[in-house]
Amino acid sequence: MHFRNHREMDLELGPEVNCFIGNNGVGKTNLLDAIHYLSLCKSYFEPTDQHNILHGEEMFMLQGAMGTADGVDQIAVSVRKGQRKVVVRDRKEYDRLADHVGRYPVVMITPYDAQLVLDGSEVRRKFLDGLIAQFDKAYLDALIRYNRALVQRNTLLKRFAADGRGGPDDLAPWNEQLSLHGQEVHRVRSLFMAELVPLLEQHYRGISSGRERVALHYRSSLNEAPMQELLQASWANDRAAQHTTVGIHRDDLLFTLDGDPLKRRGSQGQQKTYLIALKLAQYDLTQARASRRPILLLDDIFDKIDPQRMRHLLGLLREQRFGQVFITDTDAARLHLALEGTGLDVRSFHLASEPHPDREEKDERAYAE
């Protein structure tokens, strides 16, 4: 209710493949994002919760029945302007949203994933952290504690610049916290990457007929020295910059093709292949860690990939490698043809825009077949 451009919608979804079909702008992707919200307490696309409220309204609410090995949970997520986000499971509100993360694993594949290649390191760190946090609560806790200590240390550095006082010893308590939690985050990231990279290479070979060599490198200053040593050595730089210049908050992922950065060397087709392979590797690893098949969200995917990449993805669908799948597309005939012969229970929901009598905005309706 009142989520993004949807005023209200109630859908009875199928257990295997669900297709949202309609013209651009009717809100197909927003339905995928609603599922992502119910699963992980956040939007895949818009990090500011209140920006997801329908224009002119004061709040949004999402409700859904989420299946687990123990039965079906009733989940509700609500955001009201000026108030904190509320997430409720079976009528009981979470004290910590982190306790919800990982209960319903989900993987999204969307054209917007190109940001992983084209944008800055923060986008790639968020991708990595979000992936690991789905099934490692200790990692999420360490990351939260690290970020809290980082804020405190940076506040002190700014204060030192303002009043001309302060020295390295004043930062010692926060250095200790950053070292403790930063080393743990770095350790888990390193182990995780060692598992993710072979899966990436395997899927890339399966999608591409070329002989390119792909790799994924985890770049971190902690690869060279312990966090405590880095903080001590960076005191002068940190004081001049008024913020912490070393640590896991500056880590990055380097995507390469034949030894060169993918961003510079790879064609658009090679970049798309790399990103699909990366997301499929994410799916495999999430499934292995969570001991259940994640929800798979495919946003406008069949319109953006060529037949060769489509064949690989459809092959995985036919093998029933995935859990519940949600697909958006503008072309019903193309989607029907692509999914024909998979042997899966496919349900289609056609979205159409209808004018609301009291507003200029459009209200979306869906009908199923």
CATH architecture of the domain at 117-288: Up-down Bundle
The geometry reads as globular
The total of helices stands at: 12
N/C terminus separation: 23 Å
> What is the spatial order of strands in the main beta sheet?
6-10-11-1-12-13
> What CATH first level of the domain at 117-288 would be assigned?
Mainly Alpha
Order of helical and strand elements: EHEEEEEHHHHEHHEEHHEHHEHEE
Total beta strands: 13
The third-level CATH topology of the domain at 117-288 is: Glutathione S-transferase Yfyf (Class Pi), Chain A, domain 2
Structural class: alpha/beta
Query: So, the CATH homologous superfamily of the domain at 117-288?
Result: RecF/RecN/SMC, N-terminal domain
Helicity range of the residues?
A: 40-55%
Radius of gyration: 22 Å
Mean pLDDT over all positions: 90
Percent of residues in beta strands?
15-25%
Description:
The chain is an alpha/beta fold and 369 residues long. The chain is 43% helix and 20% strand. It has twelve helices and 13 strands. The strands form three sheets. The protein has a six-stranded mixed beta sheet, sandwiched between helices. The protein has a four-stranded antiparallel beta sheet with strand order 2-3-4-5, with helices on one face. A three-stranded antiparallel beta sheet has the order 7-8-9. β3 (71-80) and β4 (86-89) form a beta hairpin. α4 (137-163) crosses α5 (172-207). Residues 355-364 have low confidence and may be disordered.
Can you summarize this structure?
This protein is α/β, with parallel strands linked by helices. It has 12 helices and 13 strands. 43% of the residues lie in helices and 20% in strands.
